[in-house]
Amino acid sequence: MQHELLKRKFEEEHDLLKKRYLDECTEKKRLYNEVIELKGNIRVFCRYRPLNPDEVANGSSSVVDFDLSHENEIQIVSSDSSRKQFRFDHVFKPDDGQGNYDLSGHILV
């Protein structure tokens, strides 16, 4: 019985923290957009494509490394295994469909 109460309490606390986190993310995005607008509204997006069937058949591998914990960054892995990191306003992943490209209100160059 006490175990169930503790479990419910932790689930409620988890839900509350998750909501707060999402609210903070929304506020961060709003503030970021405001800063960008004040700076001149220039944003840089990156989309790296998946390997095509010919590249897969040839045994090629992607040189792009993407870490979900750093969703606005990619790393390019060179043939000598050195890495170069690049940061963007948003990175579209290879599995993102066309519907994920919500660029309304963005000036494209």
TrEMBL record:
Biological process according to GO: microtubule-based movement
Presence of the UniProt keyword rRNA-binding in the record: no
UniProt KW keywords: Motor protein
Pfam families per the UniProt record, alphabetical: Microtub_bd (PF16796)
GO CC terms in record: microtubule cytoskeleton; plastid
Coiled coil segments of this chain: none
Subcellular location: Plastid
GO molecular-function terms, A-Z: ATP binding; microtubule binding; microtubule motor activity
Entry-linked InterPro entries: Kinesin-like_fam, Kinesin_motor_dom, Kinesin_motor_dom_sf, P-loop_NTPase, Vik1/Cik1_MT-bd
Residue ranges annotated for the Kinesin motor domain, each copy included: 41-109
Entry annotated with the keyword Cell division: no
Family label: Belongs to the TRAFAC class myosin-kinesin ATPase superfamily. Kinesin family.
Protein name per UniProt: Kinesin motor domain-containing protein
Organism: Cuscuta campestris
Native organism taxonomy: Eukaryota, Viridiplantae, Streptophyta, Embryophyta, Tracheophyta
